[in-house]
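[09:14] KT: can someone run the structure on this one? pasting the chain below
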Amino acid sequence: MLFLPCTQYTSGSDGGWELPAHTGLPEKLLNKSTQLTGFFLPHYAEHFGRHLARLHALTATGQLHVAVDPTPFVGLEAVSDAVEHLHSGRSVGKVVVQLTPSTPPQLHTPPPLPSRL
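[09:31] RB: done, structure tokens below
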């Protein structure tokens, strides 16, 4: 977190205090007096099992279909291209990176859920 102490206030046509040269998200939020609100996913871990079981059942019965983007990304070197494709707004569905060319992606059969969920 960044704190900028304000030790002198000037008014008039001189423009006031100078904005910091930092360009990160905290500085951009601070300069606009904006806040960023979110949630911490582990706080909801107790609900994972119930919801994953429901999603798995819907997928297994064909009531829920997962849309997978048709653009092929193969190998770890393609991860940055896949992220760029995702952020471009051109992706349709989930973007999948196939780690090795010899391993076909398992997109049609959902994996079984662990019994502890």
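[09:33] KT: thanks! The radius of gyration is 23 Å.
[09:34] RB: yep, looked fine to me
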